[in-house]
Design goal:
single chain; about 500 residues; Amino acid/polyamine transporter I; globular; membrane; AA/rel_permease1
């Protein structure tokens, strides 16, 4: 008999959980470059990426709710083990490259805790200061993760509220107060909502919006935690998406109102925006408080995620896809060797500070590489959503896109696939608004980065040995493996 006392998630509860998981303020300055037309990019990316991601992931998560592997399972069931391994590998590597970018923002926030804003800005622009903060905080988070402390999750929840939701609301309120008291807007409200598509390079920064929305696939695991998920889950997705887009649009406009377009800096402008509003309202004493809140939000998030994505690749590795060295754990079962390898990769990437002309250019190139790798994983996921409708057509789906037929899955997953492919192509082009240094370095980092990262799992798969499989691994076989074994009997 089913346990009827289990607490089910309400529509609005899941919507807010999605908002908390997806929204981050650190990317707002990049889109503030576009003024009024930034809203178009946010809405476009929500329609062709955010909503398709959540819906397709929900169907796949519900389809394999009792089996391990996540995106490895989803893609592997559709296209085989090699591409499944590529998908989980990209999810892990993408998060590893993401750490220096988010910690760069954290270092800037810490720099703005001081009261002398000229010195704060100079410190935030210092490459060696940023490098030191990134490495110290990251390795501290790694060592804490190795201890497996239970309070990390609580810190993350508080950090999400204190470091993201409250500052976002405050930024919007400050902009409204500024305009109502006669403040002069630096953004032209009469400019076009539609962007100038003739300037191809202008679309590059906009492709970064896809990374803003990345992670919505994680909400798919909650599809079975709702009553009547086929009706209520899409409702939660659309409400959560609407709130997310609203926060991003109003937050971006709030920065554009107080900072002239030509002065926008990708790493510093969020803090400068708060500073300018507080100075106008004669509340300068509040600037260090908001800087501490933003820094706390960043650090709490990193502390939680340092061990998170590596857990997925660890579980798959134990099933025979990684050498025994990467399957080693400490006394409390934490994947120590993978965490240390991840830390070395973060350290190596952080040393790019020395090569790139500025903190801002480093931030942008790593953000673009993160987008590229994550989008390859999403392309595989959307394609898998369609393919499994035909390869597992008779399997019961607790959550299904479209009541009958496959037309709607082609529309939704196809929209996500095409949107991801467009953003992938655009991400290779250097943005005209930012000094990224030598274009050759830009293309080399992105192209070679993609080639090396994508080739690595295929090489590992080619040399894997039966002895790599952990005897204690309980990884379930794929449906097509079970079919073969049944046919062989």
């Amino acid at each position: 008999m089913a346990n009827t006392s289990t607490v089910k998630l309400g529509v609005f509860t899941l919507a807010i959980m999605n908002v908390t998981a997806v929204v981050s303020l650190r990317g707002l300055p990049a889109e503030a470059e576009y003024g009024m037309s930034s809203a178009f990019y946010y809405l476009f990316a929500a329609l062709v990426f955010l909503i398709p991601t959540a819906l397709v992931a929900a169907e796949l998560a519900a389809l394999f709710q009792d089996k391990q592997g996540g995106v490895f399972r989803w893609v592997g069931e559709a296209f085989g083990k090699r591409l499944g391994f590529l998908a989980i590998w990209l999810q892990w590597i993408e998060s590893t490259i993401w750490y220096p970018t988010v910690l760069t923002f954290g270092a800037v926030a810490i720099a703005f805790i001081g009261m002398d804003h000229t010195n704060d800005m100079a410190l935030a622009s210092n490459k060696f200061y940023t490098l030191a903060v990134v490495l110290v905080i990251y390795w501290l988070a790694t060592f804490i993760s190795l201890k497996g402390l239970g309070w990390v999750g609580k810190i993350a929840k508080i950090g999400g509220l204190v470091g993201t939701i409250i500052p976002a609301a405050l930024l919007i309120i400050l902009a409204i107060a500024y305009l109502l008291t006669g403040g002069e807007s630096q953004m032209d409200f009469h400019s076009n909502f539609l962007p100038d598509f003739s300037k191809f390079s202008n679309l590059v920064l906009a492709s970064g919006i896809f990374l803003f929305y990345a992670g919505m696939e994680m909400s798919g695991i909650h599809v079975k935690d709702m009553n009547n998920p086929s009706k209520n889950y899409p409702k939660a997705i659309f409400i959560g998406s609407a709130i997310t887009v609203l926060i991003f649009v109003l937050g971006t406009y709030s920065l554009g109102i107080i900072i002239p377009r030509q002065d926008i800096n990708l790493t510093q402008s969020l803090l400068e925006g708060f500073d300018n509003y507080f100075n106008y309202l004669r509340m300068s004493w509040f600037s260090p408080i908001i800087a501490i809140a933003l820094a706390f939000g960043v650090l709490a998030g990193v502390l939680t995620w340092v061990a998170g994505p590596s857990k997925g690749i660890f579980v798959v590795g134990k099933a025979g896809y990684l050498p025994p060295f990467f399957q080693k754990t400490n006394k409390i079962g934490v994947q120590k060797n993978i965490l240390i390898l991840q830390g070395l990769a973060v350290t190596l990437l952080s040393l790019l500070f020395v090569v790139m002309p500025s903190v801002q250019s480093f931030y942008q190139i790593l953000s673009q590489l993160t987008v590229l790798l994550y989008l390859i994983m999403y392309l595989l996921m959307f394609a898998a959503g369609i393919a499994l409708r035909y390869k597992m057509k008779n399997t019961v789906r607790p959550f299904r896109i479209g009541k009958t037929g496959n037309g709607l899955i082609w529309v939704i997953a196809g929209l996500g696939f095409c949107g991801s492919l467009l953003a992938f192509v655009l991400s290779f082009i250097p943005p005209s608004q930012i000094k990224t240094g030598n274009n050759t370095v830009w293309f080399l980092v992105l192209i070679l980065g993609c080639i090396v990262v994508v080739a690595a799992p295929f090489i590992i798969f080619a040399v894997k040995k039966p002895s790599w499989t952990d005897k204690n691994s309980e990884f379930e076989p794929f449906h097509w493996e079970q079919t073969k074994s049944t046919e062989g009997k």
